[in-house]
Structure to design on (279 residues):
């Protein structure tokens, strides 16, 4: 009886933590809605986007199915989130009725959408990485690992195939994302880079932005390590071999779509960091 009471109290405390996480995520969604609302006019779009809303709902339903969340419950949740996002933008509750949409603003040649320097005031609305960290911790580790393993398999397909990563067989290299409080230990097993649950022999440590700048080649490894934005710790030989491999990566072999996505992501992260620094 006492043990059950204790277990119930612990369970309820964890439910409270999950509730906090949901509100944090809702607050993050609202900030992003604000950003989307400010970007839409210069992207030539009106505020209300029923097609996007329906895609958002469909994605939600697919994930709900995989997670065993009843479809009706998920639908209610998305109704609430979308109604809130519409209200934030001064739109009526019902997408089909249009709401108080602004007239479309055509894309302005003077302001290309990828000129991020002009977006600084809006980028400041994004939470800085240290505020995103608690949200990431809500994501189960095995999801994080599966995502990372899939991304590495795509980016590093060519070097893995030609044996350039063989030095990683049975070795453990850590990647520490300092501002997100994340650390993954990678090893090569059966020709695949996997995340292992073990201590690293050597680690590369840096902020999310600097690691993304490295992965996207927007900044070269020499500069990042020289400025100590990236730091190698542990077994120097393993660390240096990994670092040299990054320099010699056959970037052309990375699928073009992924290269573009990485490049955009890195530029976005760098611009957001600048925007926060100027605050
Ligand atoms: C946030 C946006 O604005 C509205 C709200 C949406 C949402 O809550 O997901 C989707 C489309 C828009 O009608 C957006 O355009 O992305």
């Amino acid at each position: 009886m006492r043990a059950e009471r204790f277990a119930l109290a612990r369970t309820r405390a964890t439910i409270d933590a999950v509730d906090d996480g949901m509100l944090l995520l809702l607050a993050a969604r609202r900030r992003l809605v604000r950003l989307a609302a400010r970007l839409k006019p210069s992207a030539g779009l009106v505020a209300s986007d029923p097609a996007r809303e329906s895609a958002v709902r469909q994605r939600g339903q697919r994930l709900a199915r995989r997670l065993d969340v009843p479809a009706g419950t998920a639908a209610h949740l998305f109704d609430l989130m979308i109604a809130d996002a519409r209200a934030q933008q001064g739109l009526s509750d019902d997408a089909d009725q249009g709401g108080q949409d602004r007239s479309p603003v055509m894309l302005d040649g003077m302001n290309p959408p990828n000129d991020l320097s002009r977006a600084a005031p809006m980028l400041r609305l994004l939470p800085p990485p240290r505020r995103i960290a608690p949200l990431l911790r809500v994501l189960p580790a095995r999801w994080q690992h599966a995502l990372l393993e899939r991304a590495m398999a795509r980016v590093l397909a060519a070097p893995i195939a030609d044996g350039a990563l063989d030095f990683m067989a049975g070795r453990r290299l850590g990647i520490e994302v300092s501002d997100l409080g994340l650390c993954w230990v990678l090893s090569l097993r059966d020709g695949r880079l996997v995340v292992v649950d073990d201590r690293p022999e050597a680690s590369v440590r840096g902020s999310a932005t600097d690691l993304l700048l490295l992965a996207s080649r927007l900044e070269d490894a020499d500069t990042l390590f020289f400025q100590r934005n990236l730091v190698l710790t542990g077994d120097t030989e393993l660390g240096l071999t990994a670092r040299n491999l990054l320099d010699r990566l056959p970037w052309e072999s990375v699928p073009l779509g992924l290269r573009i996505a990485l490049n955009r992501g890195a530029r976005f992260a760098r611009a957001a960091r600048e925007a926060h620094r100027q605050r």
About this structure: Strands lie at 173-177, 182-189, 192-196, 202-206, 230-234. The mean pLDDT is 83.
